[in-house]
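User: My advisor, Dr. K., asked me to get a structural model of this assembly before our group meeting. I'm new to this, so sorry if the format is off. These are the inputs:
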Amino acid sequence: MAGAIGTESGAMLAAPGRAAGLGGLGLGSVRAVLLPVALAVAALAAWQAVVVLGDIPPVILPSPVSTLRYIVEHWDILLTHAVPTTLESAIGFVLATLLGVLLAIVITYSSLAREALYPNLVFFQLIPKIALAPLFIIWLGIGMQSRVAFAVFIAFFPVVIATTAGFTSVDRGMLRLCRSLTASEWQIFTHVRFPAALPYIFSGMKVAITLAIIGVIIGEFITAQAGLGYLIIFATARADTEVSMAAIVVLCVCGLLLYGLVALGEIVANRIFSAEPA
Amino acid sequence: MAAQSATRPRGPGVPQAMSGATAPATPLLRIAQVEKVYGGRQGPVRAVASASLEIGRGEFVSLLGPSGCGKSTLLMMIAGLETPTSGTIELDGSRVVRPRRDIGIIFQDATLLPWKTTLENVLFPIRILKLPLAPYRERARELLAMVGLSGFENHKPAQLSGGMRQRVAICRALIHDPAILLMDEPFSALDAITRDQMNEALSEIMDRTAKTVIFVTHSIREAAFLSDRVVVMGGRPSHVILDERMPFGRPRRLAIEETPEFGQVVRHLRLTIEQAHGTAPSGRSAGGE
Ligand SMILES: Nc1ncnc2c1ncn2[C@@H]1O[C@H](COP(=O)(O)OP(=O)(O)OP(=O)(O)O)[C@@H](O)[C@H]1O
Ligand SMILES: [Mg+2]
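Assistant: The format is fine. Below is the predicted structure of the whole assembly, which you can bring to the meeting.
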């Protein structure tokens, strides 16, 4: 589920749309909501039917109903594991966004930095960065700092790329107009470049939030004393598949929550910096 | 919409006023032997060889000339966005060495901020210049009313037509009351009918505000209709080849374009430009002497 969100927002990165908002909730969009929900419900029903009718043992595949029952009965345990995962993801995401925007500013304003940094960033993107996760444990220990650092490491890149694209999307005529008005670089940044880049920044942030969660989960897979990733590994090792499944569901909810917060921020920003009529 | 009588009559067509304001004793803008050489990969490009020009307060001067003859370059130098390789530009008694507050610019594209309303876009220079917003808000409304955009204050650029956007850009260029207005082919992206309307509107606005304007265009008719003087640049290397007063009175209506007098002036300008163009090689290189 989380993977699906990742690819979807990856597509968004390619085409940030200032105009794309929640405008026009007509009949078409009722259909657009109903159809996927109906499909999901049908899939869950099919899953339930297969498990019940096929008499599949819960160790192999717990049914949706039994998973839900487990979540309702043991929500306190799940919550204690959900908190560190969500918190670390959020911290990693915020740091990745700050780092990404900062690097984009440096790349935009210094041609030296651009020429030195950009090819390396792209090259870094080519390495399967997940393979580096164990090294972060060696360097930073088994505490949350290693997981947060790894989350930042895999999440900041889309922010850099998208934000740089946003900063450099500003029309040259606009920049010339600003300069003719004796605007300082700071004024150009705050009045023109930053607002123009906002839709791009948010599209980068939407990818970053899903990557940050992935980073934290991988960190927890490797070593942790708590967290949903830890719970999944721990339960799976004991053939407690029902617990794993419940943890995965909670993880999806946490992921959606974080993603929803970013999307909410985007809507607010779009309200202020939209080309659409107020 | 009856044309308002000009606040300050200008041009030879109108009887010379006795007010001292129009007397071209000291020109507002003095361009003296200005040369601009761009350093490029394929050697230097001499965009302007030697331009000398004086423009009086309140004059409307058009710059005509073939593509690449350095019209935009000259305008950028007047705006302080480019530095002349040699020669001097003096505006209102002081040398132009960098961008300054007393200049208003309009480009081919309106270059409005898409997320700002019409009113906010007009007020943009005030924000940049850190002037108090309150008094200028009223002035912005007045300017918008003058260009016929009352009621569009809270529209965003996407809701406006190309001609309307360019009118917003004109208001934005006027909001801080600059000494001179620089316009680089401001209407060339518009369709012919809108362009005619814009020309008539601009003529009326300029009659009212009595601003000094330098107007770059490729259209001889447009130049003849709008200007007190038409300056033609050209030749290799590029320099001023013609500087001619337009013998039409003000206010001007589009109807004057139908008069034989207007046709004659346009023909004369066209011939001069063609001659200048024909006698010189039209290569784009530096044209070393
Ligand atoms: N930034 C620059 N760097 C190098 N060469 C330039 C630059 N700007 C303009 N030029 C060159 O200077 C010459 C004059 O250009 P300019 O844009 O001033 O002409 P123009 O008269 O405005 O042309 P057009 O009518 O097509 O707008 C051209 O040969 C152009 O290639
Ligand atoms: Mg030009």
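One thing worth pointing out at the meeting: The beta strands of chain B are 29-38, 45-55, 60-64, 86-91, 94-95, 103-106, 180-184, 212-216, 229-234, 239-245.

User: Perfect, thanks a lot.
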